[in-house]
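step: validate -> pass
step: tokenize input -> pass
step: predict -> running
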Amino acid sequence: MILLLNSLSALELKQLIENFLDSKKGQHIVSIDLRGKSSIADYLVIASGTSQRHVASMAQLLKEDLKKHGIKNINIEGLPQCDWVLIDAGDVIVHVFRPEIRTFYNLEKMWGGEEMHRDSARPSKS
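step: predict -> pass
step: emit ->
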């Protein structure tokens, strides 16, 4: 796991990422609690971008923002194509998709998750 210099908990890191993606107009932001299900991370955060440029921009800007918060060793995969970009932030793994690629892989169905609504910033119950 990544050492967080500013002592953010995994939950705080997840919330920081959700808020960041929301501020960059990420769509259909879903968080999945992996604690007890997998040892790869504590949370998955999944979001959609409207285009390849939007996906790339969100991923690159998220990496910069996480660095500003003291998170090191952030790895990004998938930037050349920008259909599906994975950002490994240690305790939280972020997937940013183009909508049709997200639909095809359907990670939410595999892992289960709750969608964040931009208006309320709270998970939906649906």
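step: describe -> The chain has a mean pLDDT of 86.
step: cleanup -> pass
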